[in-house]
Design a protein that fits this description.
Structural class: alpha/beta
Largest sheet: 7 strands, mixed
CATH topology of the largest domain: Aspartate Aminotransferase, domain 2
CATH superfamily of the largest domain: Type I PLP-dependent aspartate aminotransferase-like (Major domain)
Strand order of the largest sheet: 4-12-11-10-7-5-6
Radius of gyration: 22 Å
Number of strands: 16
CATH class of the largest domain: Alpha Beta
CATH architecture of the largest domain: 3-Layer(aba) Sandwich
Bound molecules: pyridoxal-5'-phosphate
Number of domains: 2
Distance between the termini: 34 Å
């Protein structure tokens, strides 16, 4: 007998092409049709449950089918779904921008909307370049980025990223960027602190800024965690030093908080931990609580003013997306920020982060785990062939994929990045659910290292 899951899977595989997937893998591994979801749980067509330990690709904050966000959206859909955002505006877009300006680091006072993270990165890159052009610095055309960084999949965003798996194939299509070795603390010396290593590595960035000050528009960086780059982490001091150096050499700082924003690192925005304000801050993912595609680029009055002039001067930022400022998405954003403002979310996260930290201590002793690292609500476990030399497993063995399959069979959705297993759960997760999650991950790792 064919189950409901199998029926949907069959239909899916006839017409669909899924993201970031070698579709042939689905000859041997199931694609799972989800019927509904609630809180941290996904439920498939056959009635199996999966704990969403990765917040559905880092977007969900307060659980699936969150009552507060649901109610706001139900109200919004009977009022206004969408309207052209040039020449027109609406309350959800204004309210969300007001809240973002209020909650974001000081000096970020303007909000430009796009509809996904990659598009926000494109906007920030174009705005930075265009600012310098409007100001007469036409020789500033380059961007500086870090090794192992990730900023999205569209060609501009891909160009300023540095994860070879996503980038190499398209290299001939991409603009040239200046790539600087990063502060990834996985590579620090034994006994060296995150702080010391991050400071030491900054000298390479300082040199680069000095060298390219005349030709560089901006440095783009993921504050505190390089998420798609296997959840590699560094100390806030790097951001503090970077802000000072960008000021010194007159280069913009673009903070890509698309993944780390909205409480993931312990503070609402990761930049707060370095007490800095970037010139541009890109937001998406958690912005709508994981409900709808939306992104925002926040910037300063100085940037805004460089575009503000008579039409004939041709200094305007003529960039748009059809769904710019979508009313439903903005309303979901407002409802999401309401929750942050009405409930002690960050305090509660501190408690959850401490529980996670305690639960993963056991992984430290494991013979095939080189490092367990954590920043706020993100924990990553580095699975390796040799703990002492950090020699990785050959990627062809796909150990992480084995972790994924085993965990699924036990009702947990993990989606390792290569051989790095990580937890980035919705903030509504309970201690009991965390215990279950860590238990399954531990067993999954032991299964994946066999033979
Ligand atoms: C996910 C991500 C992006 C791209 O966002 P999309 O909405 O997937 O296009 C950009 N930067 C970072 C840091 C991300 O994690």
């Amino acid at each position: 007998m064919i189950t409901a899951n199998q029926r949907f899977e069959k239909r899916d595989l006839l017409v669909l092409w899924h993201p970031c997937t070698q579709m042939k893998d689905h000859e041997t591994s199931a694609i799972i049709p989800i019927k509904k979801a609630h809180g941290v749980w996904l439920e498939d067509m056959d009635g199996n449950h999966y704990l969403d330990a990765i917040s559905s690709w880092w977007v969900n904050l307060f659980g699936h089918a969150n009552p507060h966000i649901n109610a706001a959206l139900k109200d919004q859909i009977d009022t206004l779904e969408h309207v052209i955002f040039a020449g027109f505006t609406h309350e959800p877009a204004i309210q969300l921008a007001e809240k973002l300006v209020e909650l974001s680091p000081e000096g970020l006072v303007r909000c430009f909307y796009a509809d996904n993270g990659s598009a926000a990165v494109e906007v920030a890159l174009k705005m930075s370049f265009h600012y310098w052009r409007n100001k007469g610095y036409t020789q500033k055309t380059k961007f500086i980025t870090l090794e192992n960084s990730y900023h999205g999949e569209t060609l501009g965003a891909l160009a300023v990223g540095n994860v070879p798996l996503y980038k190499e194939t398209y290299a001939p299509l991409l603009m040239d960027v200046i790539t600087v070795p990063g502060p990834d603390c996985y590579y620090r010396e034994t006994g060296e602190s995150w702080f010391d290593y991050s400071v030491r590595r900054f000298s390479l960035m300082e040199e680069t800024l000095q060298r390219y000050a005349d030709s560089a528009c901006a440095v783009i960086i993921e504050p505190l965690i390089q998420c798609a780059g296997q959840m590699r982490m560094y100390d806030p001091i790097y951001l503090t030093l970077l802000r000072a150096a960008c000021d010194k050499y007159q280069v913009h700082l673009i903070a890509d908080e698309i993944a780390v924003g909205f409480g993931r690192t312990g503070t609402l925005f990761a930049c707060e931990q370095a007490d800095i304000s970037p010139d541009f801050m890109c937001l998406s993912k958690g912005l709508t609580g994981g409900y709808l595609p939306l992104s925002a680029v926040l910037t300063t009055d100085a940037i805004y003013q460089a575009f503000y002039d008579d039409y004939q001067k041709l200094t305007a930022f003529l960039h748009s997306h059809s769904y710019t400022g979508n009313a439903l998405a903005c309303r979901a954003g407002v409802a999401t920020l309401d929750i942050f403002q009405q409930q002690p979310i960050l305090e509660n996260n501190k408690r959850l982060a401490a529980i996670m930290s305690r639960l993963v201590v056991r992984f430290n002793e494991h013979l095939h785990i080189a490092e367990v690292r954590q920043t706020g609500m993100v924990v990553a476990i580095e699975l390796v062939k040799n703990k002492y030399t950090k020699e990785p497993y050959p990627w062809q063995e796909r150990r992480g994929q084995k972790v994924y399959q085993y965990a699924l069979s036990k009702g947990v959705l993990l989606r390792p990045l290569g051989n790095v297993i990580y937890f980035m759960p919705p903030y509504v997760i309970t201690e009991e659910q965390l215990i279950m999650l860590v238990e399954v991950a531990f067993d999954a790792i032991n299964q994946a290292i066999k033979d």
